């Protein structure tokens, strides 16, 4: 069951490569990290996000699809007009 869910998350993100996204990640000890960038690449186990340079010290971050499945990361795809197009959260 979980393997199918991971594959479904990967396939749904593949459609948004090159799109602007917002990430909300669990930073531990009740911290939430929010980052914005572009969904750059999709790999079998992880996806890569190129971060906005003016806001972050890192150039790229990677997360696994399991991070979305376990609700450690919330991914929101943002349209060119700034409106939310889709949010990936597992319930």
TrEMBL record:
It comes from the Bacteria. Pfam families: VEG. One of its GO terms (biological process) is regulation of DNA-templated transcription. InterPro entries: Protein_Veg. Coiled coil: none annotated. PANTHER family: PROTEIN VEG. NCBIfam families: BflmStimVeg (NF046033). This is Veg protein.
């Amino acid at each position: 069951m979980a393997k199918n869910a991971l594959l479904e998350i990967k396939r749904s993100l593949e459609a948004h490569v090159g799109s602007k996204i917002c990430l909300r990640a669990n930073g531990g000890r009740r911290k939430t990290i929010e980052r914005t960038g572009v969904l750059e690449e999709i790999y079998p186990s992880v996806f890569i996000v190129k971060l906005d340079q003016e806001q972050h010290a890192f150039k790229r971050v990677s997360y696994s699809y399991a991070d979305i499945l376990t609700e450690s990361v919330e991914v929101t795809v943002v349209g060119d007009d700034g409106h939310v197009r889709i949010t990936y959260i597992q319930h």
